[in-house]
Amino acid sequence: MGYGGKPNGRKGDVMIINDHGRGHLRILQLHLGGDRNFQYLLADARTGEAVAVDPGFAPSRMLAIAREQGLTIGQILITHGHSDHQGGAVELAALTGAVILAGDPGDLAGAEPLADDQLLRLGGLVVRALATPGHAPDHFCFMCQDCLLTGDLLFCGKVGGTGPYFPGSSAGQEWESLQRLLLLPPETRIYPGHDYYGGQGTMPFSTLAFEQEHNPFLTSGGFEAFCALKENWAEYKEEHGIR
């Protein structure tokens, strides 16, 4: 939940695939269920080696898509331990033999813990794991080339929820994690964990530069204003016509 390419398929509860391939990096953005959840396949187009990110739903369908695209899933990456992001991970691991990596392996059978700035090989590419707590204490983002999968930290135009509804969450940690992301190059592409864009049209991905200029949580003027916007988000959305 939050304060916040080329489409294939249909909307609603039916599968959607957005293909955001960039050079040797393949990025398949999938909607297979949940509250507008995005789950991802990242792959080296040259070798077909792939990682699945946040397989919260329909793991057998996710595997079928990978196979249809000529991809082999060798690792499963979890941005955070909420069920809509990891619910299908164990089943997908059983189907593929892939290892699960998560900030807090918890009850994910056979999972291995992630470390901040850990580098993961993806064919001839490298995925960097960034510890970004806030929405959840075990939250990670994943960067490959100029593409950043932000889970529930940063959405297009919004940020991840914090407060009593999200045990272990921290607005202060989320603010610090967002500041860490803002140190990355402005052209960095943002691929969120949910399709929560609330403006006109659609926006399945963004850039850091765009978010710095347009995301109200990043233009709020400091941590106190950031917290105030969270507290008054419903009123702000209504006033500004945000869905």
Q: What descriptive keywords fit this protein?
A:
243 residues; Metallo-beta-lactamase, Chain A; 23% helix
Content-based structural category: alpha/beta
Helical stretch tally = 7
What is the domain tally? 1
The CATH C-level class name: Alpha Beta
Strand content: 25-35%
Helix content: 10-25%
Biggest β-sheet strands, sense, barrel: 8 strands, mixed
CATH homologous superfamily placement: Ribonuclease Z/Hydroxyacylglutathione hydrolase-like
Uncertain stretches: 1-13
Give structural notes.
With 243 residues, the chain is an alpha/beta fold. It has one domain: Ribonuclease Z/Hydroxyacylglutathione hydrolase-like (Metallo-beta-lactamase, Chain A, 4-Layer Sandwich). 23% of the residues lie in helices and 27% in strands. It has 7 helices and 14 strands. It has helices at 59-68, 83-86, 89-96, 171-181, 208-214, 223-231, 233-240; strands spanning 6-9, 16-19, 25-31, 39-44, 49-53, 72-78, 99-102, 112-113, 119-122, 125-131, 140-144, 147-151, 189-192, 206-207. The strands form 2 sheets. An 8-stranded mixed sheet has the order 1-2-3-4-5-6-7-8, covered by helices on one side. It has a 6-stranded mixed sheet with strand order 9-10-11-12-13-14. The longest helix is centred in the last third of the chain and has 11 residues, at 171-181. The radius of gyration is 17 Å and the shape is globular. The model is unreliable at 1-13 (pLDDT under 50).
